[in-house]
Amino acid sequence: MNQNEAVFRDAPVRTAVVRMAVPTVISSLVLVIYNMADTFFVGQTHDAMQVAAVSLTNPVFVMFMAIANLLGIGGSAVISILLGQQMHKEAKTASSFCCYASLIFGVLSALIILPLMDPLLSVLGSTQNTIQPAREYLFYIAVGAPFILFANTFGHVVRGEGAAKASMVGGMIGTVVNIVLDPVFILTLNMGTAGAAIATVLGNVCGCIYYVWYFMRRSSMLSIHPRHLRGDKHQMVQVVTIGIPAGVNSALMSIATVLLNNALVQYGDDPVAAMGIVTKAYLFIVFIHMGITNGIQPLLGYCFGAGLRRRFLDILKFSGILTVVCGTALSAVYIIFSRQIVALFIDDASVIAYGGPMLIATSIAGPILGLLFLSINSMQALGRPLPATMLSVCRQGLIFIPLLYILDAGFGLNGINFTQAVADYISIVLAIILLVQTLKAFTGKSESENSLHISQTASNL
């Protein structure tokens, strides 16, 4: 048993959660900064139309993240379960599949987007004022799709063997490169949105180089060698099946953002720019939650694979409390300093006036949003993709989309502002119900001690 596997099985629960969650939270925050950097530096041009253009094309980047999450989070969950079952050869098959699937999806994405760019931008909600900077940004993002997908997929995959620090380092390399190059390309070379996209792609290229080095030199249990693709195809199917909830959640975020932007366009380009800033800023809270829950997913998967039921529940309980504490503190800051936070991105009175109330409305669900992601990831770790997928579909699809039109029709722009928070609260209630049912199935209803532990866990969540 190596050091990473010892953390999965033997370390005290709090130590194990911190050991896995902290690097993953840092990696998530690095990704948030990565996303914020383009908007922040484009905002320094004081051109609200360029900010709006980046916001309008963001759904494409989010769709890339959907594919990366499907392969990466699915791969991480499958790998941790296989390692818990001591199936090391099969774990290498899963990681190798994630490698080549991410590259193939990246190439296909570029081949689809580039010839269909103008129709796609029209669907995304571009206007005459925003279409040119949006086109410049999207072109380079599409060209860099294989690198973006590979880097972000393996930011998740390496955590499957407990290498949370490697995930953090890979993400930080890409972010530092992006942040250094953004002001050079955007402001010094006056390349605007095109410069932002080029910096993003180069950052991901550097992340790819690091992960390839990691697999060649440091990883003992995973592989990206094509020979492992000749293994049992069952692992590949499992990766996709278990990764579907994470992929669906991100894909629906992309679709929801497109519909949201189209709903906002009727109120002008400034609300679109403001919501783009709010969405990027709120990702800080969302990714704190996702960092904690993604970080502990390999722990949960290993416990499931190894049959460590009590340890599974203890990890779940501690992580749930942790997300609520962190979410409450951050949401309070966002609500109190909403206008100041928006003003960090752009010095435009109109955009700030729209953005302040938007950020307050969106942040209301922040304290307990982590319970939704915790429920989804727990079900993935238990090999239960169907209820996890249901929750993902509800939050950004079945609940969010109808609410968007209902609240817009009933309350106008204010209704749009509160759509995400209302959808989140409804989804969280459903998540708790499905989680309790899934835990009962895992532990067995006849075991009174485990049933009591489930009730205590649910009440604490």
TrEMBL record:
One of its GO terms (biological process) is response to antibiotic. CDD domains: MATE_MepA_like. It is a multi-pass membrane protein. Its main location: membrane. GO terms for molecular function: antiporter activity; xenobiotic transmembrane transporter activity. Keywords: Antibiotic resistance, Cell membrane, Membrane, Transmembrane, Transmembrane helix, Transport. It is found in: Cell membrane. InterPro entries: MATE_fam (IPR002528), MATE_MepA-like (IPR045070), MATE_MepA_subfamily (IPR051327), MdtK-like (IPR048279). Coiled coil: none annotated. GO terms for cellular component: plasma membrane. The chain crosses the membrane at residues 21-41, 61-85, 97-117, 137-157, 169-189, 195-216, 237-261, 281-303, 315-337, 357-376, 397-416, 422-442. PANTHER family: MULTIDRUG EXPORT PROTEIN MEPA, SPORULATION PROTEIN YKVU. Belongs to the multi antimicrobial extrusion (MATE) (TC 2.A.66.1) family. MepA subfamily. This is Multidrug export protein MepA. It comes from Butyricicoccus pullicaecorum 1.2. The lineage of its organism: Bacteria, Bacillati, Bacillota, Clostridia, Eubacteriales.
